[in-house]
């Protein structure tokens, strides 16, 4: 190679250098869709904190936000996977009611202990997912039609099994899943729950470690990276948010109860497991590939029918978990349980950035969407707004979120 060729040859890390030198303003503009949803959550929380006179973020209300909206967060994870795969599931609310009815029935009529009852409910959820996945993946019935039929079938089954209602023993450990807290094994440090503080500190360390590791990985692989300024801002904001949430959890109880609710652990396990599936496992890459371009995915050797089946199996399993959470929360099963749950889950996904056409979406975004729905519900409830107005506002939020996604795509095009 000549001297002139050596001088003009591009450096291997030129793309990385360009990305790293990107200004904070340009970076935020390029990632407005990704980070806009987090800003929207902050704005909504601050707005209702002001309108409610500080009641929204009182420790007990903060804990109740997770306890009352756990079903949305769990279902939103499954619904996001369904939407990424270019499908939709209209039946999850009815499935939650059906599984809750089964669980209450076996506990009351068969006197099955609560652990075996949970296993039965999860098994029923998988069978429901297998049933609906069969029609979608192997018969070719569109998911909209299949799950519309499922919505009617499982609502009818829920009505047949539960009737008016089937109560669950309120003193059973099963009910504690949604209402109780982790044992206060470290005692109280002054007015604060010691275990909550330790878990919060570990969460901060994990957050910082994962962000730094991701940044280094992207640099090493020549991928787009966060600017130094934005990286620092993200770390500061993340630490402050986790720290404040830790304070609220740690001060939510007294010498008898309080701290980290058990349901938050359930949510964390579900979120962690499915983030690993989508980001680290072959199945996750196949779901994104099928959702992004089904024909190209098939040509590349992906079995799209098997992927569709797994999508609905996962949705059935998560509907089973949501049914457990719902039955635990209300301590009774009824034919009307789960009404509108599918709409809340779909709304959370679209608010959180899932694309209507499929192939796009992240679990953190869906969770933020679920939190936005939860904050709207709780904030408007504290203000005494009637349920019909709440529905109107939530509907408008969904339309605006989807419209923003479509407009952003047109601008990029």
What this model shows, in words?
The strands form two sheets. This protein has a two-stranded antiparallel sheet with strand order 1-4. With about 425 residues, the chain is mainly α. The chain has two domains: about 30-180 and about 265-410, no CATH class; about 180-260, no CATH class. The protein has helices at about 5-10, 15-20, 25-30, 30-50, 60-85, 90-110, 115-140, 145-160, 175-180, 195-220, 230-250, 260-280, 280-290, 295-300, 305-330, 340-350, 365-380, 385-410; strands at about 165, 190, 190-195, 330-335. Helix 12 crosses helix 13 (about 280-290). It has 18 helices and four strands. Strand 2 (about 190) and strand 3 (about 190-195) form a beta hairpin. The two termini are about 40 Å apart.
């Amino acid at each position: 190679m000549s001297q002139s060729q050596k001088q003009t040859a591009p450096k291997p890390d030129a793309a990385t250098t360009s990305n790293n030198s990107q200004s904070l303003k340009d970076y935020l503009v390029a990632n407005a869709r990704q980070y806009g949803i987090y800003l929207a959550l902050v704005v909504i929380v601050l707005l209702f904190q002001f309108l409610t006179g500080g009641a929204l973020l009182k420790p007990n209300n903060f804990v109740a936000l997770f306890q009352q909206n756990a079903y949305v967060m769990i279902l939103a994870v499954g619904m996001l996977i369904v939407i990424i795969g270019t499908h939709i599931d209209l039946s999850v609310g009815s499935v939650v009611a059906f599984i809750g009815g089964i669980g209450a029935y076996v506990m009351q009529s068969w006197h099955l202990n609560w652990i075996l009852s949970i296993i039965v409910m999860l098994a029923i959820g998988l069978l429901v997912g297998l049933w609906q996945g069969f029609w979608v993946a192997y018969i070719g019935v569109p998911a909209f039609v299949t799950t519309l039929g499922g919505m009617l079938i499982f609502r009818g089954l829920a009505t047949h099994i539960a009737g008016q209602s089937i109560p669950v023993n309120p003193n059973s450990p099963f009910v504690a899943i949604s209402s109780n807290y982790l044992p206060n094994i470290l005692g109280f440090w002054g007015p604060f729950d010691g275990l909550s503080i330790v878990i919060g500190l570990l969460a901060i360390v994990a957050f910082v470690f994962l962000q730094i590791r991701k940044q280094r990985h992207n640099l090493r692989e020549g991928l787009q990276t966060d600017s130094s300024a934005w990286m620092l801002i993200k770390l500061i904001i993340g630490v402050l948010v986790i720290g404040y949430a830790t304070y609220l959890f740690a001060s939510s109880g007294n010498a008898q109860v309080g701290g980290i609710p058990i349901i938050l652990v359930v949510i964390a396990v579900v979120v962690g497991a499915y983030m690993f599936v989508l980001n680290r496992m072959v199945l996750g890459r196949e779901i994104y590939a099928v959702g992004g371009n089904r024909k190209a995915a098939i040509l590349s050797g992906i079995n799209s029918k098997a992927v569709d089946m797994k999508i609905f199996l996962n949705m059935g399993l998560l509907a089973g978990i949501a049914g457990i959470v719902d039955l635990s929360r209300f301590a009774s099963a009824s034919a009307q349980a789960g009404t509108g749950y599918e709409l809340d889950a779909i709304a959370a996904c679209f608010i959180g950035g899932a694309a209507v056409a499929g192939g796009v979406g992240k679990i953190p975004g869906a969770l933020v969407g679920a939190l936005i729905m939860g904050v709207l519900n709780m904030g408007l409830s504290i203000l005494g707004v009637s349920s019909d107005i709440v529905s109107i506002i939530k509907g408008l939020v969904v339309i605006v979120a989807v419209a923003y996604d479509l407009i952003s795509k047109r601008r990029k095009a």
